[in-house]
Write a structure and sequence with these properties.
The complex is a heterotrimer of chains A (249), B (289) and C (320). Chain A is α/β, with parallel strands linked by helices. Helix content of chain A is 37%, strand content 24%. In chain A, the strands form two sheets. A six-stranded mixed beta sheet of chain A has the order 6-7-8-3-9-10, with helices on both faces. A four-stranded antiparallel beta sheet of chain A has the order 2-1-4-5, with helices on one face. The longest helix of chain A is centred in the middle third of the chain and has 17 residues. By secondary structure, chain B is mainly α. In chain B, a hairpin with a 2-residue loop joins strand 1 and strand 2. Chain B is globular. By secondary structure, chain C is an all-alpha fold. Chain C contains 13 helices and no strands. In chain C, helix 8 packs across helix 9 and helix 10 packs across helix 11. The radius of gyration of chain C is 19 Å and the shape is globular. Classes of the chains: A alpha/beta (249), B mainly alpha (289), C mainly alpha (320). Chains in contact: A-C, B-C. At the B-C interface, helix 4, helix 9 and helix 11 of B face helix 5, helix 10 and helix 12 of C.
Amino acid sequence: MGLLEVERLTRRFGGLVAVDGVSMEVAEGEVRAVIGPNGAGKSTLFNLITGIIKPSDGTVRFAGERLTGLPVPRICQRGIARTFQLTALFPEMTARENTRLAAQAREPWHWRFLGGGATFASAGKRADLALERLGLTALADVPAGFLSHGDQRLLEIAMALAQSPRLLLLDEPTQGLSVEETAQAVDTLAALLADGSLTVLLVEHDMEVVFRLADKITVLHRGAVIADGSPEAIRNDSQVQRAYLGGLS
Amino acid sequence: MSLFAFLTTQSLNALSQAALLFFLGVGLTLIFGIMRIVNFAHGTLYMLGAFVGYSVARSTASFWPALLLAPLAVGVVGVLFELVILRRLYRREASAFLMVTFGLALVLGEIVRLTWGPEALQVEPPQAFAGIVFLAGEPFPTYRLFLVAAGIIIAVAIWQLLDRTRLGLIIRAASQNPEMVSALGIDVNLVRSMVFGIGCSLAGIGGVLAAPLVTASVGMAATMIIDAFVIVIIGGMGSFLGSLIAALLIAFTQVFGEYYLPDFALAFMYLLMLLVLVIRPGGLLGKEA
Amino acid sequence: MARRPKYLRAWYGIFPAAMLALAPFALPLYVMTLLTEALILGLFAMSLDLMVGYTRLFSFGHAAAFGFGAYASGWLLLHTQLPMLCAVPLAALLAGIVAIGVAWVCTQATGVSFSMLTLAFAQLLYAVAFKWTSVTGGSDGLAGIPRRGGPFGFDAFSSRTGFYYFVLIALAAALVFCWALVRSPFGAVLRGIRENEAKTLALGYNTRLYKIAVVALAYGLGGLAGALYAPFAGFANTELVFWLFSGQVLIMVIVGGSGTLIGPILGAAFFLVVEHQLSNYTEAWALGFGLIFIAFVIFAPEGIWGLLTERLGRAGRSVR
């Protein structure tokens, strides 16, 4: 039984089937990349898993428990953290404050309205650790809105990490990054994922990033899974090649 | 009174009420649709229309010039406000617009109070419609029939404007995608000023038409702004048809509610609004706020 | 928000606090009355700042909190034997509890719809205050509200000067509470909601509950201000629930400087001073104030306090 089990997940928008009976199983510690041409339904899949939209059909199970139908904060509390395609941060807060707020959500007294020094200390520690792992310690006191685009993407990952998630969903982490920034980000991510303690679901367009980081790859096309396997197998799959180069109707 | 007579008179009552509400709501929804601005001053502009109408009617001893000049005056005020103040805020966030139109409401409210005094003022309906007709044996003020007719005429006029004219096309396009419209070479700023002016004029028309019925008073603005927003919220922000339907819905609820449960008529309107917000947060026909 | 050095913050607090504490010994009676009213309105404005400045929830109906508190404490003081020390906090508590229901409804919506709902509730209360003559006195309101001393014969707060200290203590306590609140984990979440509610939700916070909580707190503190006003002025009427008043307190917050707690208190004082001074010269002072408000929104959205701290911050100290 995998950590994340997606069973025949479907989402229709009127006549359009954005996600079509997607099934997949992600084992604990695995780094699974979800790839596919534009409009394949990758972001919709993420939104379905994290509860931002409700499925038309199918279920999502996490650590054996049903996830589908729960509100967004509850799903997050189960141990799932995600980053967004369009960077979502708190622009006026410093990088450290951003990350600390993320970490705070996991504290038992996260809602304390008086005092809370202990909560802040504990959350702060986890935040600093996350920033360190992403190489952002030097920028900890910079307001997030002033960071470069690349650093902002990394900060979002740090925030997700600070929540000590069991499952991390990264939505196009290298999107909008320059070649150097991408290389840097991939190095950081590779180091992060090296020990196999994190389970990651990764949406990416950049194939080099995918082949460098992923243990397994799921390929979506028009909302449905057309291939699923090791990077080697996917690389040689003719269907996948046709989907990317066009021709597959 | 026979049931038929009762239903007829009360329904026409509701229709005339709906007409007034419609004038108020359609201007607001038009402004929101194009500019994504919620015009807090809308009730005050309505009130301004009533008072200007009063003055014009008194000085010319006739209602018709008032009907023409009051909306014009209010429209001009709107355009000036847009040019001088709103233009500076388009890059700011939505709350700035809320604040500034609220400020306008206060300033205009004070101007009205200082110019015309705190007392309610009586406006005479036009001679032609000052009397009574008999419907199914019951007396009914002719002026209310005039209101219903005016409502229909203006609703159709706006509909045609939006649907058939080039300006209407631009307005509808700009409400969906202002950047695109601007890229097509159309001066979006001009469109904005015009729409804001038209929206305010509509409030002014509502005010001057309402004046013979409810008297022009300083307290008008507060209740009208809420009514206007309830219409727009229920009908959907930015939807012309929505504001029409909502105006009818609210008017009928108010009129028949007032008859059967007079103390709760106010509550009905809020309950209706709450219900709609819970079921369809965007309003019955609206784009999301 | 700039990080002000610690010593600067303490300095801000002690000097004015001492001045306020010693005021009755230095100022004439009519100024003291004005000052007391300023403190009450300052509390009112500060309570709204919790919503507007810290959570970006714009309420156009905050007068409902004030009016409810005023009517509640007024009624308790008139119709029961409760002393002020009991009636006032009780009225504030009631306001906060009722506000939970109001908040639950209003937070169903966001943005403008939220603001409209708060206004609608205030109008509803206004209508109730007008119609429920047996309890609220209708358009006449409640009059002759006493500053009843007790318990145990303690009536130091019943005199003019004593009442001033009562208000001062209440405001100080509320300020300390709010100050602690915005620096707590709860306050950090409010800030998150203010800057990016969707992200805060995605981090696992039930933002709706937080919003309900802050609205209830804000209305409770606003109710405290109203509850103090009733024995201060001796009356409570529908004007205290009128939308104009809601607008005025919003102006106090914005002009004073939202999101700073102190700013709105200054804004309230500024408002009162202008009202008292200008109204001697012209009937159009409210008009002038509306124009000042618009000017602040356009040119100085950080408000008076924001302008002041910027100027002090630039005066040779490294703040960032």
